Amino acid sequence: MSKTTRVYFWGVTQLFSLWAFKQNLPKEVYKNLSYSIVDYANGLPLALKVLGASPFGKKLSEWESALCKLKTTPHMEIDNVLKISFDGLDDMEQRIFLDIACFFKGNDKYFVSRILGPYAEHGITTLEDICLITISKNMLDMHDLIQQMGWEIIRQECPEDPGRRSRLRDSDAYDVLIRNMINSGDKLHDKLKFIDLSYSTHLIKIPDFSNVPNLESLTLEG
Q1: Is the dihedral of CA 7, 8, 9, 11 positive or negative?
Q2: Selection from 130, 118, 112, 114 nearest residue 92 by Cα
Q3: What is the distance between the alpha carbons of residues 96 and 132, in angstroms, rounded to a whole number?
Q4: How far is Cα 194 from Cα 140, in angstroms, rounded to an integer?
Q5: What whole-number distance in Å separates Cα of residue 40 and Cα of residue 45?
Q6: DSSP 51-77
Q7: How far is CA 74 from each of CA 80, 93, 132, 216, rounded to the nearest angstrom?
């Protein structure tokens, strides 16, 4: 860890500690867990403040349980604030944001623009202007909590049935395509446009996508 990184890390740790413990450094018994929460927040002041205020006075086991939940389910207060910027976008910009959150974080800006169409470059610029994404050396990036917000928006399209969501990623893609399409013969919803199979390590045969009429992008390699 470089000197600059150490200074930054201790700075955000102190910020979290002030909200959580009303003192500059975490209590000894909570130190490792505090570091994990700071790492989860990834420097986002809003997240540090909300997470610091939430567990104040709780037992260590309650903190550990809360952090475990946070890694799979967004904190609603943080999520609601972050979503204000998303709700202010037009439909095209929202679609571009969700595509980046689900599939294109870490990809080249011009590569993504070619895939997403003629309005994508303008949309990407808008997302950068309101800090939903960052661009460095033409590579698209996004804060982990903002990306998690995007994933949650997709999940809420149909919480019980991933196959009826507009985008499939990670294990959901494997579950829907393999277990449903091949084993049970279920059809995918015609709303589906993007599928990411790069995490499907056990996939040995590409399923038949003839019943997915609006499919625009299929990712096979990570």
Answers
A1: positive
A2: 118
A3: 11
A4: 18
A5: 12
A6: HHHTTTT--HHHHHHHHHHHTTS--HH
A7: 10, 22, 16, 28
Model confidence over 177-190: pLDDT tens digits? 665 554 445 555 56
Q: Which residue has the tokens 């997403």?
A: 116
- Taking the CA of residue 69 as centre, how many other CA atoms within 13 Å lie in the half-sphere pointing to its CB? 9
Residue with tokens 């990670």: 170
Strand 167-168 and strand 217-219: pairing?
Answer: unpaired
Q: What is the DSSP letter of 164?
A: G
Of the two residues 87 and 51, the one the predictor is more confident about is 87
Instruction: Decide: helix, strand or coil at residue 182.
Output: helix
CB atoms within 10 A of CB 127: 24
Share of the chain residues as helix, strand and coil, in percent rounded to the nearest 5 = 60, 5, 35
- Residue that the structure tokens 């413990």 belong to: 21
How many residues are listed for the chain in this entry?
A: 222
Q: Can you count the helices (H) and strands (E) in the chain?
A: 10, 5
pTM of the model: 0.67
For 35, the token pair is: 């570091």
Taking only Cα atoms into account, the Rg of the chain, rounded to an integer number of angstroms, comes to 20
Residues 6+ apart with CB under 8 A from 128: 134, 135
